[in-house]
Amino acid sequence: MHCPFCRHPDSRVVDSRTSDDGMSIRRRRQCPACGRRFSTIETASLSVVKRGGVVEPFRRDKIIAGVRKACQGRPVSEQDLALLAQRVEETIRSTGSSEVDSHDVGLAILPPLRDLDEVAYLRFASVYRNFASIDDFEHAVEALRAARVGHARAGQVETDASAVDAGETDA
Questions:
Q1: Do 69 and 20 belong to one domain?
Q2: Residue 171 lies in a domain
Q3: Tens of pLDDT along 43-77?
Q4: Max alpha carbon distance in the chain (Å)?
Q5: Angstrom distances, CA of residue 50 to CA of 15, 56, 106, 152
Q6: What is the Cα–Cα distance from 3 to 88, expressed in whole angstroms?
Q7: pTM above 0.70, yes or no
Q8: Structural domains in the chain (count)
Q9: Cα dihedral 101, 103, 105, 111 in deg (nearest 10)
Q10: pLDDT at position 166, please?
């Protein structure tokens, strides 16, 4: 690491700590030539490979901008969008790969968006999955309804199990 003051090609790490989000490391460095101190922040790089083969750095703001269009007129706050983008980035980073296909980024957006707002999910999915007819929408709505019923049943099973554990049976 070059010293930003005297451009000396080396520096010594004085202190290291993880940042608040745990995704980067802040290092305090000292230049052996001029003795001045400076900070650096290190993050693991994550790149997105576009359809045309172009590689660009992953950016949360691009996730937010794309999802914001689907959320127009919906009760979704900027904080909700920021949390969604964070969940997407965490999902992608959990794969352990430093390069991810743009299609995989879109797939990672769908589940948290479905949890956030079903209408926005349908809007985004209709463009992302290239819905060609009303039948495609109907299938997507049916899948949402099935997932909702599945969640309700899972919640009921948990409630029933809690009642049994607590000794609250009707018998």
A1: no
A2: no
A3: 878 999 998 999 999 999 999 999 999 999 999 99
A4: 82
A5: 38, 8, 11, 38
A6: 35
A7: no
A8: 2
A9: -150
A10: 43
